[in-house]
Amino acid sequence: MVKVILLSVILTLLLLLGGQALLNRFYYDPQRGNEVAVSTSYVFNRFIQNQLTQPNSVLADFQINRTGIGTYGISEIFETNSQSSQTQQSSQIKRNKQSKDISLRSRTIGNTTLFSDEEVQRKLIEPDQLDALLESSRELPRSSQLTLNVLFKKDLSLDEYAHWTTYNAPTSDTLWYAVRTKKRAENERPYIVGFSPNGHSGQLPELKETPQLQEKYPLLNSFWATDEQNKWSDEKRETTRFTSMLRYLQSQTDFINLASEGEQPLSEKQIAETLAYVEEHGVKIYGATVTLSVQNLELLLKSEDLAAAYLTEVALIRL
């Protein structure tokens, strides 16, 4: 009798566990692989999404735990490209929808401090205010690193941008290109899309490597580059990588739709519009995120091509 009861309990547990596994298959699983990632496709998708929409943010660490049927708790740590600040974000994926915890925790790293006055960080520095920015920057230690979003008077191709940096910001590093998309109606919600010229950084899962993927998404992974592609011009390589990221993310509809409509960093429609615009006009840069030392700021601000700038970060590095 005891054996019968024990067997019944074991069978019930097996059925329950098997049933849960079966039910989980009907819901988005961030730990599952896909056509590119061996596992944790959510992390790779998040990386691509960040590359396309975040000028100064790298996924430094993450944790994913299944908490129920179709339910997962996710903790992500992002850091700025200068690695001077980290932000932790918690969220829950519950049956194909993601809700984020709006309470974020930030901290500085090492011996750097972050200039965190939001009003100053968000301030648009118009051309007639650039002198004031330059004057105030002279009070900072000469080793300080500045991060700015710069806007140009006219759109630049990738080659034109490279020429601009040679003469106006030769010691700067470009963190991100802001890419022109379709012209928007006056009341249409704007969206920002672009990419980093620095390629892959931060946490990445193991990726598959097949000739089919290399052909479908050329240069999506920099390690996929063929000998022929390595001979391409910088502009052709960067354009190819940018469009491959867009087409890959476009295929990840379950990931895109984790966010409610209107809250998606980049929707399927916006991706399609961007691809169509780039196919017709090429990659046109209307702005960029750059980092440079405070002593090299004056040369950049004197550029006749500069329309405006946003100061987004000041890292005070005490040597």
TrEMBL record:
Stretches assigned to the Sigma factor regulator C-terminal domain: 147-311
A matching Pfam family: Sigma_reg_C
InterPro entries documented for this protein: Sigma_reg_C_dom (IPR025672)
Name recorded for this polypeptide: Sigma factor regulator C-terminal domain-containing protein
Species this chain originates from: Enterococcus canis
Native organism taxonomy: Bacteria, Bacillati, Bacillota, Bacilli, Lactobacillales
